[in-house]
Design a protein that fits this description.
The chain is mainly β. A hairpin with a 3-residue loop joins strand 10 and strand 11. The longest helix is centred in the N-terminal third of the chain and has 8 residues. The two termini are about 45 Å apart.
Length: about 425
């Protein structure tokens, strides 16, 4: 079951936490435990931000560990709001209304990753230790009010003194080739159209790796690792539901996107391979689902009532994989740590063409969640405080197809949250 080890605090695939990974059990008084525990524990938080802007906001620079979202949706393919916080230095340069350039370099890690023996028992090899740097560059062209074009390059690179990745306006793949192809690169292309009274339509394409060495059905070859997202955001008519913003989108991740073989050729400061997956602290940096997934999402956000924010989020998720313990490596997998492994003498093109929904055991999840946020006016102690909460439910069922894995019984999930939020100004 997706994320079963995290307990009942989250709906499937929606695991999240704000603290540092390592928690201390109160009864043991010893750190290093997972944040998902059934005992009382102590966790630590730190949120920091130092930022400045110059020339009427044409140049903005920030050093912080806040959550970021670089895309037309909060949950996008490049850098999502669902990614774990990481410290990073970023800059945004907009010399003209139609031109904007953004640059980011940050530190990524995962202290709660698999040990060498745990990884070998599951995958047959050591998945490594995550100690990397992430560099993103995003170029945006906005020639008219109705057209928005953007292109980005990204590289996850092993922590080492390497100024090649810090060069602005340099496509990240070129320095990767120059320094020896030790790192994990990607690129995106986005197109957005804005129509009066209809809203915004966008299409995003993330290219992890693409090969033209073989002819045929290129988009179905697992060797070609990519993802795409199409969305529509609009305000609902006032006569239907005033003050409501609707967002409908579909996201598709192909097998092996965001995956990467553990790098053994560069030993920076550890005695294990380096985990080069496009992830940080146990979560994807891009879209939150594992590889070989698809999601329909419809979100409604209403701000029509004074001091209230109401939202309803509904998702239909499909995800497929195969038995990690199988002796047949040439199958379609949906696990970020299962890269497209080939034994000695094997050919990466021997993997079968994808048949999404039929080439493995698939879990199908329907979930919906209602959230509210109520701002309470001034009191004698604080200017205001907020009461927020949510309630959600999900149902997951499995289809074995031809995978040979026995499908478990369907699982129903429920979650709830209630928070009191005080901003001290």
């Amino acid at each position: 079951f997706p994320n079963l080890w995290t307990g009942v605090s989250f709906l499937p695939y929606r695991t999240d936490y704000e603290s540092l990974y390592s928690h201390t059990l109160i009864n043991e008084k010893w750190t290093g435990h997972s944040p998902f525990l059934h005992q009382w524990s102590v966790g630590f938080f730190y949120f920091t931000e130092l930022s400045g802007s110059w020339f009427d906001d044409k140049l903005q620079v920030g050093l912080h560990n806040q959550r970021r979202a670089w895309g037309h949706a909060g949950e996008n393919l490049l850098l999502s709001s669902t990614a774990r916080r990481f410290p990073g230095l970023e800059a945004h340069f907009r010399p003209a209304p139609w031109f904007r350039f953004s640059w980011l370099t940050g530190s990524t890690f995962h202290p709660g990753g698999y040990s060498s023996s745990e990884a070998a028992a599951i995958y047959g090899y050591d998945t490594g230790v995550s100690q990397n740097l992430l560099t993103l560059q995003l170029l945006e062209i906005i020639p008219t009010r109705w057209l928005h074009l953007s292109a980005s390059s990204v590289n996850l690179w092993i922590k080492r003194p390497e100024p090649a990745y810090l060069m602005p306006f340099v496509f990240a793949h070129w320095p990767e080739l120059e320094v020896g192809d030790y790192d994990n690169g990607g690129m995106t292309i986005d197109v957005a159209l804005l129509f009066p009274r209809m809203g915004k339509f966008w299409f995003s394409f993330y290219n992890d790796e693409f090969s033209f060495q073989r002819s045929g059905a290129l988009l179905r070859m697992p060797r070609n690792r990519y993802g795409w997202q199409a969305g529509w955001k609009t305000a609902l008519p006032a006569r239907l539901l005033p003050g409501t913003l609707s967002t409908l989108r579909y996201t598709r991740l192909t097998p092996f996107i965001y995956t990467h073989y553990p790098e053994t050729r560069v030993n920076a400061f550890i005695d294990r391979p380096v985990d080069m997956t496009y992830s940080h602290d146990g979560a994807n940096l891009g879209f939150y689902l594992p590889p070989n997934s698809g999601e329909w999402c419809w979100s409604l956000v209403n701000t029509g009532l004074p001091r209230w924010t109401l939202s309803l989020d509904t998702r239909l998720i499909s995800h497929g994989t195969n038995d990690l313990a199988s002796y047949n490596l040439y199958q379609i997998y949906g696990d970020i740590y299962r890269h497209q492994f080939t034994p000695e003498g094997g050919d990466i093109h021997d993997y079968p063409l994808t048949r999404f929904g039929r080439d493995g055991i698939y879990d199908r999840t329907f979930m919906t969640e209602f959230r509210f946020d109520r701002k309470v006016s001034m009191t004698s102690i604080v200017p205001y405080f907020r009461v927020a909460g949510s309630v959600g439910m999900a149902r997951t069922r499995w289809e074995s197809n031809a995978s040979g894995v026995m499908a478990p019984a369907p699982v129903n999930s429920f979650s709830g949250r209630l928070s009191l939020i005080v901003d001290i100004l």
